Automatic annotation (TrEMBL), chain A:
Annotated Pfam families: MaoC_dehydratas
Organism whose genome encodes this protein: Nonomuraea indica
Family listed: Belongs to the enoyl-CoA hydratase/isomerase family.
Signal peptide: none
Official protein name in the record: MaoC/PaaZ C-terminal domain-containing protein
Domain of life: Bacteria
Domain MaoC-like, residue spans: 19-116
Length: 134, 388, 318
């Protein structure tokens, strides 16, 4: 499997885009895999009763997908040090999550990549991911 | 004093079914004809009519249908099934005061094939009347069926006295056993076991399906006249030895959850006290009782409120066979509303008359006095009927 | 949600001081340990997580470590949380709820990973309340930002991961018209309201549980009415209940179906320490866990765009 080393990384380089279809299966299976049984993540009737249009991604999954987005690009040798996420609009089932990102700097603790996850309503997550590479 | 001034001289009913196939007005008229025939009176003699506020048939409509002439007394009694004995109380007062001479009490409905009381109605809390406002503390939370309102009492009663679902079940089993030998009962020939009761589905926990009475189409009518006149009519009279209505402090419609104690029926205590006072009798003087049984838990509470046993002792009373035919106090020999039919308590009054006459399908030996109660959890009423 | 960012500060309110006091008290508690994870870090849960995320990174299972973003997963409550240990955050959120800040939206989640957790390690969370900021005007409504930190310790006292978590608790605007969901289906079970009862429903929509009190003799009364039955006074006031209570009786409704409701649901008569009883639903709790005597705390649920109902959720006994 391809993996990057520190020498391969250019500050300012864009990460390849990733689009994830937010099927009900994805929303439900990730909620359960993250042990989050809050009904709004698997029960559409309750989600609607609470004012949502559908079930939506839980935060633990947003964190996981941001992590996956970066390591899909870096390959298995990267070590994730930090993920800071600013949460925006909900990511509803039936929508599509488009992830884009760029390496924005390198500091003592590692490289920093800015990641944006967009859905049809706007920014679902704006993240800064810090990672190191061999 | 009202004591023994009036009597029930005639009883009549339609068949009890799940789909009468006829209008409620026709059911009412048929039952009234049957009651007048039973008494040996002509419809033209009827000059008073009493029914439930909830009844859909106006007095004048029934009067037209049976060919009655002028009416000099008509009244309605409020509060659902709590009205049942109240209709007889009003009729007896009218007769005793000279307002009328021959008063018909009736209740007719297609409660199973038409509007079913057990179904939620979102409009219950809709209007800012006193009743709408009272309902508004409960209906928005989905607490809106009679079974649910009663279940709330049942849970507290269980908690207060260590009563179990099986204790409730024994009431249903006894009523179905009585109904099994009453040819007029819907559940004639169909007794129930405690196991079947326990296995029946939840309606509103802690109430199973068989804790709830059946739903019926049908009508019952009673003819009330003076005791003196009744003695000269076709059937032996059932004297109205006592009649009472009662509501308790802080009373609500099946949701009196805000009184100090929620494990009793204070309104039935009011009725019981008045009945014993007026009749000069006590619990030991009645040979059988008709206790309103739309839901099993309230049969237990009534035994306590009326003084047949102490607080919290009703479950033991029932467990020892106390309410069965041959027991200390045979309750609802006709099978009650759990077994015979749900005609809002009026079929129970007819059974009490049969017991006084000695003509019941499940006749209790040596009946001199019968106690009858009406709807529970609501402002209610009661009667003591006696042979005479 | 968009626009959940701090803005101008509205005018002073004595309730704000109480909230600030509570926040300071909870922050002073420092770090409070929670229940250790039910399971040690293990391959099946990692494999399941990777599968659900669509993460093909072989590094984790090859090296016997967990994906770092799974830190919180290990100590999540299950479907039926039992014996939940309270955190310093709970009281702050409940106090906000009680003051009408019933809406909630998470705004920030920042995780730092000191190292990857290894197979076999059992993580224990520890929570520290960090602070309360507000009231602020936001696009969602006026609200407070509550921030807390969680540290996950491996066996022994080694911190493996840390998280800063921030939520906005806000007073939902009625009829914003900007909510992405649009107007909600009207809830069919509406209360009738008149001049004698309006104060109660106004309170509920602000997250206050109001109990009628007689302005002359001081007696409390629920359900309310136009007069004081004790002294005949028509001069009515109300007190705001503490929001705590115990289940006095309850039912579980199964049949028949009820409009606007999913069965089974629980309705309870709740006894308040103020000396009155009130009916409401018990929520966030499996029906089989409800019992007479259960300590509960009020919570508020918007049934549609106009109607808020007070509901009850289990609390730790005092």
């Amino acid at each position: 499997m391809r993996t990057l080393t520190a020498d391969d990384v250019v500050i300012g380089a864009a990460l390849p885009g990733l689009t994830i279809d937010l099927t009900p299966t994805l929303v439900v299976s990730t909620a359960l895999a993250t042990m989050d049984f809050t009904p709004v993540h698997h029960d559409v009737e309750i989600a609607r009763a609470q004012g949502s249009t559908d079930i939506f991604l839980n935060i633990l999954t947003t964190m996981g997908l941001v992590e996956r987005y970066v390591t899909d690009w870096t390959g298995p040798a990267a070590l994730i040090r930090r993920i800071d996420v600013k949460l925006g609009v909900p990511a509803y089932a039936g929508d599509r999550l488009s992830l884009s990102g760029a390496v924005v700097g390198r500091e003592e603790e590692g490289f920093r990549a800015e990641v944006r996850g967009r859905v049809s309503l706007g920014d679902h997550a704006t993240a800064m991911v810090t990672f190191t590479l061999p | 004093m009202l004591k023994s001034q009036a009597a029930i001289a005639g009883i009549g009913a339609t068949e009890f079914s799940k789909d009468s196939g006829r209008s409620e007005l026709r059911l009412a008229a048929e039952a009234v004809f049957a009651a007048l025939d039973d008494a040996g009176l002509d419809p033209a003699e009827v000059d008073g009519m009493v029914t439930f506020t909830q009844d859909a048939n106006q007095e004048i409509a029934v009067a037209r249908e049976i060919g009655a002439g002028e009416l000099t007394f008509f009244s309605r009694v409020e509060y659902g099934g709590g009205a049942a004995c109240g209709t007889v109380a009003h009729a007896a007062m009218a007769v005793a005061t000279g307002m009328a001479r021959t008063v018909v009490c009736y209740r007719a409905f297609n409660e199973r094939s038409g509007r079913r009381f057990g179904q939620p109605d979102a409009r219950l809390g809709g209007q800012p009347t006193s009743q709408g406002l009272e309902m508004s503390w409960h209906v928005p939370f989905g607490l809106m069926t009679p079974a649910a309102w009663v279940a709330m009492f049942a849970r507290r009663y269980m908690h207060a006295y260590g009563v179990t679902s099986e204790d409730f079940g024994r009431v249903a089993v006894a009523m179905r056993r009585h109904a099994a030998t009453n040819p007029a009962a819907w559940f004639h020939g169909r007794p129930l076991t405690l196991e079947e009761h326990q296995a029946s589905r939840w309606i509103v926990e802690p109430l199973h399906l068989f804790d709830c009475c059946q739903e019926s189409d049908g009508a019952v009518a009673l003819v009330v006249t003076s005791a003196e006149r009744a003695r000269d009519l076709r059937r032996s009279p059932a004297l109205i030895t006592a009649a009472a209505q009662g509501s308790g402090e802080g009373q609500m419609m099946m949701t009196s959850y805000y009184r100090d104690d929620m494990s009793g029926l204070p309104e039935m205590s009011v009725v019981g006290r008045r009945l014993w006072e007026m009749s000069g009798l006590g619990p030991a003087d009645v040979q059988t009782a008709i206790l309103y049984d739309h839901f099993t838990p309230f049969v237990l509470a009534q035994l306590e409120e009326l003084g047949f046993c102490g607080r919290g002792e009703a479950a033991g009373f029932v467990r020892d066979g106390g309410i069965e035919l041959g027991g200390r106090l045979p309750v609802n020999p006709n099978g009650g509303q759990l077994g015979e039919a749900y005609i809002h308590g009026m079929n129970g009054i007819a059974e009490a008359v049969r017991q006084v006459r000695g003509t019941s399908a499940n006749q209790v030996p040596g009946v001199r006095n019968v106690l009858v109660t009406a709807g529970t959890g609501v402002p209610t009423s009661g009667l003591v009927l006696s042979a005479g | 949600m968009t626009g959940a960012t701090p803005g101008a500060t509205p005018g002073p309110d004595p309730a704000d001081d109480e909230l600030r006091e509570l926040a300071a008290k909870q922050a002073a508690l420092g770090e409070v340990r929670g229940t250790p994870a039910a399971d040690p870090v293990n391959a099946p849960m990692i494999r399941h997580w990777l599968d659900a995320m669509g993460d093909a990174n072989p590094a984790y299972l090859d090296r016997g470590v967990a994906p770092p973003a799974m830190a919180q997963v290990w100590t999540m409550q299950g479907v039926r949380p039992r014996g939940k240990v309270s955190t310093p955050v709970d009281d702050v959120l409940a106090a906000l709820e009680a003051r009408g800040y019933t809406g909630v939206v998470a705004t920030n989640c920042e995780q730092t990973y000191h190292r990857y957790a290894r197979l076999g390690e059992r993580l224990t969370p520890a929570t520290r309340f960090a602070g309360l900021a507000g009231p602020k005007r936001t696009a969602l409504g006026e609200g407070y930002f509550a921030t807390w930190n969680v540290t996950w310790y491996a066996d022994g006292d080694e911190p493996v991961a840390e998280m800063m978590f921030r939520v906005l608790k806000f007073r939902p605007r009625t009829r914003t018209g900007t909510a992405p969901a649009g107007r909600r289906e009207p809830y069919p079970l509406r209360p009738a309201v008149n001049g004698d009862t309006a104060f109660f429903w106004e309170g509920v929509s602000r997250g206050e549980l109001r109990v009628q009190s007689c302005a002359d003799c001081g007696r409390l009364r629920h359900p309310p009415g136009p007069l004081c039955p004790h002294c005949r006074s028509a001069d009515r006031s109300y007190v705001t209940a503490s929001g705590e209570g115990t289940v006095y009786s309850y039912v579980v409704h199964h049949h028949p179906p009820v409009p606007g409701r999913r069965t089974p649901f629980v309705v309870a008569v709740v006894e308040l320490p103020e000396g009155v009883r009130i009916v409401g639903n018990v929520v966030d709790c499996p029906p089989e866990d409800v019992r007479v005597g259960l300590p509960v705390r009020v919570t508020y649920r918007a049934m549609d765009d106009d109607l808020v109902l007070p509901q009850w959720t289990p609390r730790e006994p005092r």
